[in-house]
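OP here, attaching both records as promised.
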Amino acid sequence: MIMDYCEQEISEGQTFIHIGLQFEDEPDSLYVAELEVDEQGVVKHWQLFFNGFDCKYNFRPTEKEEMIHYAAQQGISIREEQE
């Protein structure tokens, strides 16, 4: 995955992280990962959007780790929910 931006948005009391990304096998398609985060920085919900539509995509553990690391590089501290 190639990530090119990361932003935090607070809407109606809920925090979302948006990460712009491309998959290496689809270099011309731009996606947005939307991560719903609780007050402790735990990601509660992972979604992938293309042109505003939910892709119903299940991120692999390595992809989640990459996004958490990228967000940290941008100064946003998040982590995956421990089961």
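Record two, same layout:
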Amino acid sequence: MALRKFIIERDIPDVGTLEREQLRGAAAKSNDALRQIGPDIQWVESYVADNKTFCVYLARDEEVIRRHAEISGFPATRITEIRKMIDPTTERAG
């Protein structure tokens, strides 16, 4: 089964105030959970705001994302599957 793209919104109070070392620790924790789960999920990138993160993942389904949240300890407050992408060049696409 092909991996689908999701955005995971995680409510994490004061995450935007974390220092680089704390963010490194969070990334290590997430990566450890990913290794435990295997090839059904991949972390692409995350955007850190004041009190939440927005994470882009490739995953088999929502269930595997919830499993990652459970193992890592990072909440998956809202999971949204991405159906299509557009960018400034979409206007010119044929």
